[in-house]
Amino acid sequence: MQTVDAGGAKIPIVGLGTWDLRGRTCERMVAEAVRLGYRHIDTAAMYDNERAVGEGLRASGVKRDEVFVVTKVWQSDLAPRDFERSTKSSLANLKLDRVDLLLIHWPNPRIPLEGTIGALCKMKRDGLARHVGVSNFTVDLLAQAVKLSTEPLVCNQIECHPFLDQSKVIAASHKHGMAVVAYSPIARGSAKNDKVLVRIGKAHGKTAAQVCLRWLVQQGIVVIPRTSKAERLAENFSIFDFELTNDEMTAIARLGNPDARIVDWSGSPRWD
Q1: 39-49 pLDDT per residue, tens
Q2: So which residues are the catalytic ones?
């Protein structure tokens, strides 16, 4: 599996996102994904599915150390004591002694970032996480976080797909030596109906969704598409046997718009 290397972490470039997957469906998707060759599974305390993710990992039959497991601490738990409690609760639910990557899920302007970053770094020093990073951080928040952190921040996980222009925060993440991990990389399914993606897909014998994912990984961006269908798991993973031309990459980039967010709510920061 191709990886993106950042801050000492080797992050598999395709992972399974598990937002909104629950119970047996979640267990089945995780186990099937790992059997198919996925080596990166993403969850979060807020998803309320860490127990199912852990069961799926064990059901896959693949050794624990071969899978890169990510979880996140929710926005309301960013005070240091809450942060540590949340992390330990996540590990108990997953039945793991540590995760490969622990992220701040969303920044919280009401809780000082210094304390949150300090708690994040402590989780790494205490051995509860091999690597640490952030999610949904803006250019300014990234600069603050890097300045405060005593450990390498290895990634910024953000909404990222061809329809949303994220060039500013992608450039800032890379400037700080951080990988970019794209959630909602197929724009929650809307990519499949885009005429440009469909046309390019036909030229390669691929679906519009596969073109969408390929466009991201070809830029070195990690993708974590979520699905509840086994056939989609295989489709989302089959993106390494073709390459987009420079003209195709440019045509897809032109689809981007800074106002095309899918995930935007009252707890969001002021976006770039």
Answers
A1: 999 999 999 99
A2: 47
